[in-house]
Amino acid sequence: MRDDAVQVLEQNWTGRSTVPSRSLYPHQWSWDSAFIAIGLRHVSVDRARTELESLLQAQWPDGRIPHIAFAPSVPRDAYFPGPDFWQARLANGTETSGIVQPPIHALAAWLTYQADPADSGFLERVYPGLVAWHDYLRDRRTLGPGGLVAIVHPWESGMDNSPAWDSPLARVTPAPAGSFTRRDTDHAADADRPTDLDYGRYVQLAATYRDHGYDDRETPHAFALEDPCFNALLICSEHALADIATTLGHDPARHRQYAAELTDALVERLFTAGMFRAHDLMSGDLVASDTVAGLIPLIVPGLPVADTLLATARGPRFRLGQVRLVPSYDLTAEDFDAGRYWRGPSWFNTAWLIHRGLVQLGKTESAEALRTDLLALAEATTFAEYLDPFTGEAHGARSFSWTAALALDLATAPII
């Protein structure tokens, strides 16, 4: 399995970064690269460092790390929305998207450093960019009164087609059906992918943001939510920045303080009925859907409601330890779909995050069961993008980079 995982990462390596999938995702994706670096550190620490540093080459002057850095060698129409849609070119010539993805990068950088602690030069190079990234989120994306960071597009959650976005997306008039051509369904089954209606809404939201210069204060956001996964990863990365700051001889206090403030706000604003739910800033309500995003805060150090949240994970909605990995959506929901993108299937990256939370909580038996399941399924599905939580049947792309990387990580060494 290790050899096969390494081969996947080799075949998807471009020389400076790793594509998630040669067919479906032929560019560099933001949180994918963070997960990939976590696995690459066991193959080549130099490549893991390069993975993260190449992503920071796409960082904007305002500090944001865009969710896609486009490869100039790939045909411009190979992926939609491509560079011609986003119209975002940096001074160094890099073309990017204009939206972001969950901020797990500082954690990835810290874990990469731990693979070779003798080299602190890497931390010195990436620390300023990571601080600027978090400053952007704190200063520009704190759109509500409670201090949590907001996403302004479903793609920014990393869980693009989640049922949690259905109600907020209903406010969005979709882009006309003939105004764009999807490329994702060229490489994956229609039944596995978002519907054309949802895709039209995604396109319209992105176009509105683009047409307002990607200005978070000037854009009339029709979609703005405080997502529990996004904020939980920001908290963990703030803790990682504190560790990096300490290693470099800087004062870590600002990072510890922000992590504590975010943790308090996360619990106060998003926790209800044993579960974290996204907060819709437009309606003022918590969304009604229970998704795996609401379980990701298990990774937050010192989470005061961890035991209650773990009970929910083990309960009928997610059946942790009874189904394959962790389903992305409430198993008891009427619209649960075991095969469609983020509307029920289990994903390897969310299972990795929850495994990390279980280890931190000292739930050794549950963590080992999830680890064993992840490794077996990664091999059995030839490193699928996601899978049916009941049957383990593969869906989406194969030879998927973060699946290979995270399996390699769990097969190689403890991650804490």
TrEMBL record:
A single MF term (Gene Ontology): Glc3Man9GlcNAc2 oligosaccharide glucosidase activity
UniProt keywords, alphabetically: Glycosidase, Hydrolase
SUPFAM superfamilies: Six-hairpin glycosidases
Annotated GO biological process: oligosaccharide metabolic process; protein N-linked glycosylation
Hydrolase recorded as keyword: yes
Superkingdom of origin: Bacteria
Domain (Mannosylglycerate hydrolase MGH1-like glycoside hydrolase): residue spans on this chain: 25-403
Family: Belongs to the glycosyl hydrolase 63 family.
This protein's name: Mannosylglycerate hydrolase MGH1-like glycoside hydrolase domain-containing protein
Organism: Kribbella pittospori
